[in-house]
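Notebook B, p. 112. Complex prediction, attempt 2.
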Amino acid sequence: MAASDSSSDDSLYPIAVLIDELKNEDVQLRLNSIKKLSTIALALGVDRTRSELIPFLTETIYDEDEVLLALAEQLGNFTPLVGGPDHVHCLLPPLESLATVEETVVRDKAVDSLRAISGQHSPSDLEEHFVPLVQRLASGDWFTSRTSACGLFSVCYQRVSPAVKADLRNHFRNLCQDDTPMVRRAAASKLGEFAKVVEVEYLKSDLIPMFVNLAQDEQDSVRLLAVEACVSIATLLQQDDVEQLVMPTLRQCSGDTSWRVRYMVADKFTELQKAVGPEITKSDLVPAFQSLLKDTEAEVRAAAAHKVRDFCQNLDSYQQETIIMTQILPFVKELVADPNQHVKSALASVIMGLSPILGKHNTIEHLLPLFLSQLKDECPEVRLNIISNLDCVNEVIGIQQLSQSLLPAIVELAEDSKWRVRLAIIEYMPLLAGQLGVEFFDEKLNLLCMTWLVDHVYAIREAATLNLKKLVEKFGPDWAQNTVIPKVLAMSRDQNYLHRMTCLFCINVLAEACGSEITAKLMLPTVLTMAGDNVANVRFNVAKTLQKIGPVLEPNCIQTQVKPVLDKLNVDSDVDVKYFASEAIAGIAG
Amino acid sequence: MSSHRLFGIFGEDVPSSEQEGLFIRKLRQCCVAFDFMDPVADLKGKEIKRATLNELVDYITAGRGVLTEPVYPEIIRMISANLFRTLPPSDFDPEEDDPTLEASWPHLQLVYEFFLRFLESSDFQTTIGKKVIDQKFVLQLLDLFDSEDPRERHFLKTVLHRIYGKFPGLRAFIRKQINNIFLRFVYETEHFNGVAELLEILASIISGFSLPLKSEHKQFLLKVLLPLHKVKCLSLYHAQLTYCVLQFLEKDATLTETVVKGLLKFWPKTCSQKEVMFLREIGELLDVIEPSQFAKIQEPLFKQISRCVSSPHFQVACCALYLWSNEYIMSLTEENSHVIMPIMFPALYRISRGHWNQTIVALVYNVLETFMEMNGKLFDELTAKAERQNV
């Protein structure tokens, strides 16, 4: 772009347009012009963007949060438009003021953009421009700027001089001890990422004390965030240091008076396990896990229960089985009879995963009774969670052991009065069928699948139809021909028109799986017969079905059998039937 | 019948010299917690504690000279042991659900009663009290305002009010902590059950502010009270919030512009229920506004009101139009008709020509009629202009 000296009108034009648009009453128009900011910057060129556009944005934007949010986002991508990394620091003033805005989403976006452009600053630019910004924000009057500051330390620390680093650490310490809990929370949530960039000696001397303080904060909302930081910090230290510097605090947190903190420990347990290593896991985390599994608060027990499989899996293989059998399993057994259904449900979703770890003998003797007990639980979710995880057990001991109890459990779920429970069990049916084998299925489960096709609830009928398709894909077209198709076709003569329609929906999905011959020989005649049904809905669905199965049929068959029927439907008395018939005719032709 | 002696565990008489020791022993007894989640557990123990607490309430109410210095820390200890607890997890939606009440209320209620009588006792000495009722204690008390049980919050409200009154040294701290609670509520969680109760306390605090208002207080209005209007569950505390705002304006009318600008900034965009609340608040505000302040905010305000009148939601439109049923607002409109009528006219004209709701049409006609009477010349001009634009 030629930056010639054009007349003053031309050179002011883009900014003048922007100013005008930004005064518009309609916030949507203001928003649109901010979103086109890059276009304006391009028109101005890098020099004038730096000298006019950016100052204008810094000084005169006081607007609705929506507009400010768009602006914060735009500025994050503005580096090329101001002339590249050498000039990126001129984006800092507008972003600094956006980072102090009350509305959380705006200042979060401003912080994101600042983080994004920090990497484009040279170390000297960082020290000259970026770090002072961080310092100003960290000393701001109102908590919003101090909160924003917390997110900016880790991105500039590594490339500045030692003296500046010391200053940054000091500021961060002040934020960790801030009067306002909001700021302390922000600092605690950023402590982990800051720890990752700080040198190990300063991690130990400066950051660990901050961590310990935050973990003892008077507000539990701060303490629980320290638990998250714990994972990052432990990962960065040697074992001895972890034992000395981190574990005392972690032990405190797992016995904290506030359930929220204990919950956080339970939630992060597998990450903690990885971070502290196998030795400390054995000495400290196993007892901690036991107390979490027995916690007085159900939410904490449930969070711990979720972690049972992963925790056990990640135990050091030396003594793994002993530890699980003697120290974890007794507590797990108690949870099977927990008064709270969420706890039981959480356990049920993972308990089967212990089977591969403990092996066949232990599974049969110790785990099987637990599975069977949960299969009979009064809460349907518990039963469902067991059923959905059968594959791990199948690998170890084979399904047969379970199948006696399995069947009544499946049937009960399949007939549950709540349709969502029925829906969930249908979704597991193809998996179960595959694991239990075609004979078991035919004997016991086939009837169930057909019953679902005529359920009162449409979502169930729909899922049942899809289920059929998957079963056919699993067991093959011959099986379909012998067991499924006759029953599906029988529905075409049902008195209830909804069932007759379901028959057509089944044919829709079965055609492709069964292939051209079976479709033409067995299913097509029924479809064609239903073209004379006295309910219009059935008739137009015939048209739709013919269109759907068209690709599976031979062209000759289409010409001689399908087209005449469609032509007849095309002049039907019902307008919808005519519409779908004409659609089908066009679809088949094309 | 209140007693001013404590009796021993077998109901025996205990000499006056030993009453203090007995008092302390009974307080310590009441520090033991009972499990109310299990309704049949330890019924005898629960009953003994209940009776003891009752006895203590009577003792402290009618007794004279019972509040000796050694009992203060014991009292606080008993209260802390019973009240201070992490509230259980809850997915309580205050707008939809019924609250889960405190299972241990039979004991808790008596502890609160006791606490109040303690604070309100004529024997209560602030100089001794402030050693045990410190910032840490108050902070834990404030956390309890998130209790789901409205009875508990009611007690807490009174307790905190007394503490605020009796301990000037704690006032700034209490105000700051309430700020923190509100700010967290607005910007982080949008969940806190005690906002209404805290606002009630604040209303009386605000009414006690001396003039000129300190900048700390003005900042509270701008940065805490106004943003409280943003939250989704505003309906739970809007009445108390409005009252606080109006108290501020009563103290310093020059804050009107700030308040109106703040409300306009946070004006609801999609929630009609909230819009109606905002309009009611504007109505109450205008009812007491000074004419000089009115002139400052009329333009942006009536632009918003014009949008409200045009709302397809009839309640919003209705509420906006009802503003002119207020005589004072009517007179202000008349005084400033040259500004307000051009802003309102296009919307009113449009609606008068057709709206799905007949009540709205009728209300609009009424308003237009009053406009015509106020300033016939301008009315005709605006009508002509509107008709030209329509053609």
